[in-house]
Amino acid sequence: MTSQRPSRLPALRRPVMIAAFGGWNDAGDSASSAAEHLALTWDATQLWEIDSDDYYDFAATRPNITQADGVTRRIEWPSTSVSYARVPSAGRDVVFVLGPEPNLRWRTYCAQLVELADALDVELVVMMGALLADTPHTRDVPVSGSAETSAAATRFGLSPSKYEGPTGITGVLQDAFVQAGIPSVSLWAAVPHYIAHPPNPKATLALLRRLEPIIEIPIDTDLLADQAAQWQEAVDEMMSEDEDLAGYVRDLEEQEDAARDVDDAMTEVDGDTLAAEFEKYLRRRGDSSAD
């Protein structure tokens, strides 16, 4: 493994980079699973494995021991893998960045990925993540998106980011791309906090369906759709055996319905209506003053 990017790079067609990081940014391993699904589906080729010694604290992100035939033991070190896939059916290729969230030297780490993206002429970077939320598993998975510029937000139907607070490597890396002039957007799936353990194929599927129109490449999600349906059935069965948990889910559904009703009501109030109501208010104030 080396921290120096490859000297020979493939010639890619209008490449888009898709990045997902395990750990804090990836509830239920939903985002990592989405990126892995695409890399396997499109038969991605390994390009670069960033040296783990430079960016990981092995006491925090520990290596794994694996065995083959119960005899051979092998240590798998945490690392960031960069690969690429040529998608013949599409007009562009894809670069994947996948690995655990690094523990050390984030600015240097991000600078290397930005340099690689620039060298590959990446047109767009999509960061994928997942967070734990008070959302019921019985409803569609909420997927929020953000862009750092108004132009990008309009282009991809996203909202400019208004979040303020702690961030992970996804937020830092997205900012690094934006500062370098490379368009970057993020997609986040909301995972029910009461079933946080991976996998969560329903959240993975939701991310991929939101990703598809952004990267303009058809994504085969038939297998994931089947897995998501099976996951839903398994969780529903678990809920039927735990009345307290089932009641909590019903409360979440009611809260979501109430919030949606409020949003719908606000949407129906357009600018002309607000202006007319304000004029009525001013006239009433004027009549009261005259009395």
Q: Can you describe what's shown?
A:
One of its GO terms (cellular component) is proteasome complex. This protein has 291 residues and is of the alpha/beta class. It has 2 domains: 16-220, PAC-like subunit (Rossmann fold, 3-Layer(aba) Sandwich); 242-290, no CATH class. Helices cover 44% and strands 21% of the residues. It contains 9 helices and 10 strands. The strands form 2 sheets. The chain has an 8-stranded mixed beta sheet, with helices on both faces. A hairpin with a 3-residue loop joins strand 3 and strand 4. The chain starts with 15 loop residues before the first strand and ends with a helix. The mean pLDDT is 87.
Unreliable spans: none
Rg of Cα set: 23 Å
**Helix run count:** 9
Q: Write down the CATH topology of the largest domain.
A: Rossmann fold
Helix fraction by DSSP (H/I, runs of at least 4): 40-55%
Number of domain units: 2
Mind telling me the CATH class of the largest domain? Alpha Beta
- Using DSSP, what is the number of strands? 10
The SSE order reads EHEHEEEEHEEHEHEHHHH
Report the span from N to C terminus: 84 Å
In CATH terms, the superfamily of the largest domain is PAC-like subunit
Alpha-beta content class: alpha/beta
Mean pLDDT: 87
Shape: globular
| CATH architectural label of the largest domain | 3-Layer(aba) Sandwich
For the largest sheet, list the strands in their spatial order: 2-5-6-1-7-10-8-9
